[in-house]
Amino acid sequence: MQQDINRLMESALAEVFPSQEQPMPEGWQWKRLGDECKTTSGGTPRRSTSDYFGGSIPWVKSGELNDGIITSSEETITEQGLENSNAKIFPEGTLLMAMYGATVGKLGILGIKAATNQAICAIFTPEHILNKFLFWYLRFARNLIIVQSFGGAQPNISQVVIKNLFVPLPYLHDHDRSLAEQRRIVAYLESIQQEVQEAQKLIEADLHAIEQLEQSILAAAFRGEL
Prior knowledge:
The chain is of the alpha+beta class. It has one domain: Adenine-n6-DNA-methyltransferase TaqI, Chain A, domain 2, CATH 3.90.220. Helices cover 43% and strands 19% of the residues. It has helices at 2-16, 33-36, 79-83, 131-140, 142-150, 159-164, 175-222; strands at residues 28-32, 38-41, 53-60, 68-70, 75-77, 95-98, 107-110, 115-116, 120-124, 166-170. The protein has a 5-stranded mixed beta sheet with strand order 2-9-6-7-4. A 3-stranded mixed beta sheet has the order 5-3-8. A two-stranded antiparallel sheet has the order 1-10. The longest helix has 48 residues, at 175-222. The protein is globular and about 55 Å long. The mean pLDDT is 89.
């Protein structure tokens, strides 16, 4: 059942986005991400300097990316920590991708202004590309990105691979039509995501009910009531 639910989201993504082996929908174009978007990474203040941490600046680590909106961080840094490291404050709406670590390939969108560590690639979308549209495409292409980066070695994604990824974009000759199509696709995928989340909640509730039933049966058997 859980596998079927996971496949539902993957099927929806494959329905919306073409792979590079498939013909493009009429009016769509492949564009290199690095030609359309600016990218950078963050940094980590020196841990041995306590004055660099515990300030008012949210500082997001790659392990906190969970394919959702980032509205808080586990740690914060100070202005001094920011100035004495490669960390920089990114604006709300910045698209993030984990380049290495346990969550490699995971995505996030900043719902707040925040800095990040160096294991995160920050992607800034121009006005003709919705950050959520690119978010969903990167989620669709995640396995491809990871395969291209790994090469059988350490599981790291490089900014070079991210920049060289080709992204399908609709109707670039017509700005309003392009954004309208991107919004339509985002709304469709978010509706599927909501259905998936609701189905997962039902499964978790059923599993909890089954676990409680098993415990009550075992307790009854122990008391000799069965």
